Input
Amino acid sequence: MHFSSLRQKSEFREIIPYSKGEILTNSTHPSSYYVTWFHVVFSAASTISIKIDGVKDFTYEEMKLATNNFNVSTQVGQGGYGKVYKGILADGTVVAIKRAQEGSLQGEKEFLTEIELLSRVHHRNLVSLIGYCDDEGEQMLVYEFMSNHTLRDQLSGKSKEPLSFAMRLKIALGSAKGILYLHTEADPPIFHRDIKASNILLDSKLTAKVADFGLSRLAPVPDMEGAVAAHVSTVVRGTPGYLDPEYFLTHKLTDKSDVYSIGVVFLELLTGMQPISHGKNIVREVTVAYSSGMIFSVIDERMGSYPSDCVEKFLSLALKCCQEETDARPSMAEVVRQLESIWLMMPQSDTKTTESSDKDPEIAVTSQPSSSIVKNPYVSSDVSGSELVSGVVPTITPR
Output
């Protein structure tokens, strides 16, 4: 199903959703497509209508009203995709509206990728897509609004109160659980490819929600014998400072690429430093301090008091995630297991500001190790208009 050509003249008139596993072959085209959740209608005007259960299709006028005509006072963020606005829908729902930059090819791909991905994944620690707008030449995505903005905002001192170690550990565990879901429970599994502090959003209770799936890729599909490739070969995309060095050199994207990135986020949580600042790299700086027995010299003083043994174990885990060699890094299942273990070590007096485990799934320790999750064989789709192209493609020689 080639979304890259949706805005161009097409022979197709309608693609209707089939039950999972069925193949739809269009008689006017030799290719077959695996269709599960989209109902895409083409017209002579080359516009599209993507109908997804539970996801609302907004008009441009509705988006204008929600943001007071995109007033600068409603802008809450900006990135490579475009600007983010706080909006209020007609029914009173407060939302975040991500508006693509005009004429951005990157925005076009990320728009389609996010709609495709977020229509199929649902987890407490992943941001929820409320709707989208593809009207009057504009492309926007509408999400639940996160009142505490991004983790990067919190760590940069924009919040009223600094995060305690217990809150930072809770955010780390929530983020890790969201990524673990993508790696082991999404069908097919997903590599996020752009995990960073500014892509981890925080709600009113500081529940972490992984966001921004525009660069995500589907994991490789099994071959005829059931074997699954360990990586997806692709051009390097992501954010400097968070990029897996092995992926950068080989163009081989794996689940361990996300592990490296979340390891950098863990180091940010512990130190308050940015990944790259004034020529200094956070992984290198913390590694030197750790090797010299000076780890507490780099810990963020704004955390206040903290249990040193828990901090040491958390920092050790973060550095394991940031190993240069892929095989030396733990899986996300192991990361979650170790974070849960650290949480159980925390004194009750340090965790009383967070909700109890029986009330808050965020910090509830699983009764069974996360590594027990078994990945089932799956069927994947290729959507060339988005970044969710699965399967192994020829390796691209690094430039």
